[in-house]
Amino acid sequence: xxxxxxxxxxxxxxxxxxxxxxxxxxxxxxxxxxxxxxxxxxxxxxxxxxxxxxxxxxxxxxxxxxxxxxxxxxxxxxxxxxxxxxxxxxxxxxxxxxxxxxxxxxxxxxxxxxxxxxxxxxxxxxxxxxxxxxxxxxxxxxxxxxxxxxxxxxxxxxxxxxxxxxxxxxxxxxxxxxxxxxxxxxxxxxxxxxxxxxxxxxxxxxxxxxxxxxxxxxxxxxxxxxxxxxxxxxxxxxxxxxxxxxxxxxxxxxxxxxxxxxxxxxxxxxxxxxxxxxxxxxxxxxxxxxxxxxxxxxxxxxxxxxxxxxxxxxxxxxxxxxxxxxxxxxxxxxxxxxxxxxxxxxxxxxxxxxxxxxxxxxxxxxxxxxxxxxxxxxxxxxxxxxxxxxxxxxxxxxxxxxxxxxxxxxxxxxxxxxxxxxxxxxxxxxxxxxxxxxxxxxxxxxxxxxxxxxxxxxxxxxxxxxxxxxxxxxxxxxxxxxxxxxxxxxxxxxxxxxxxxxxxxxxxxxxxxx
Length: 514
Known about the structure:
- The protein is of the alpha+beta class.
- The protein has 18 helices and 23 strands.
- It has a 7-stranded mixed β-sheet.
């Protein structure tokens, strides 16, 4: 991570706490590792992101419905899903720093460094050759870039084989061959690679024994699969159709860091789309395109998103990719799109002894549907918006300001109503306007401090508009609306304020652009 990006990330984390977005959990007891609480502004932003996703799925698609399944599930659920036997990460420790790392992540980071070296070679050559530079020809003929690419391809192939065979010794050998050092101690004094299961377990009932052992769900998808027939029959759903859900999931991440990017308690927004076998790849491509458009409509910059195909497919998938986002820590997974085949429903049918098939009346046959999944991490979505919205600016008058350019429909507060002074009937008039707006818009009222300071505070929490009530308001029933991003102000009739702000801050208008 570049030093500048590292500083931005630290500033975002600090800003998030100072302005009521995210607090370390149980902070008065020195916190709990990789667990965070959402503050008053964070909770509002989070709820708005949920609404944007939920409405996109359930309002814009008449064949998608939503459910809310329980966190606790029968323990056999996780046997059927493969989580009891296969939900683990390959870990190793550095004997000097005592730090623990995911072996596959260390290898992927080393591959990313090699890719950066290729980009640097390309940049140097582009400067040298100018307009006549042919990037594709250079990459495929330059001995140094070819050498890097061969090493990348070889490493990816070895990692795929080691992952598929759960060969921990082979994974450690890759780390040795790549000469990977611990980023903390700088040494290569590694332990062997071991598998760690990531599920949290607990006991249900009064007796603590294996018979009562249950798990906190590590994903929300299984709650959808076990309810597949309930939803299909009660909703009279015809394939293709989807089931959406937003909910908490829990993973005992051994290496959990990078703020809210990787946590032990997190929230997912998932949709499982049930399709006819053989049609899954066309729906896989359909949802890739749809989900990318959903993200890019927020206006955080199309260049900050990219697709990344999985080299190592999960045991249930026949195709998988990530939508990656350019976080301050680099391009990382934001959303996963997976073709899960019929693995889940077939296994639940096998373990439960209950038939989980769809009767296709047009073809007069029953079959187990295939599934295309879209799964976005709500906390990562929150971090993507917060980090790209955070802006440090130097203004024309030489002063500085920090502004969160959160898309207006997602902003915690849509408008701040500010009387210019705390006298002359201005607060009363401001409250009158506030009471009219608050049924349609999340409003913030403040009358303390100079108006400039209040503007800066609203900039810092991302409020897109400020309505200022001054002495002219009492004369002609107009107010000033200040735009957060441009800082321009316009005079508007009080009677026009509500309609103008609702239009500018509407999630539905955002959805219409997709």
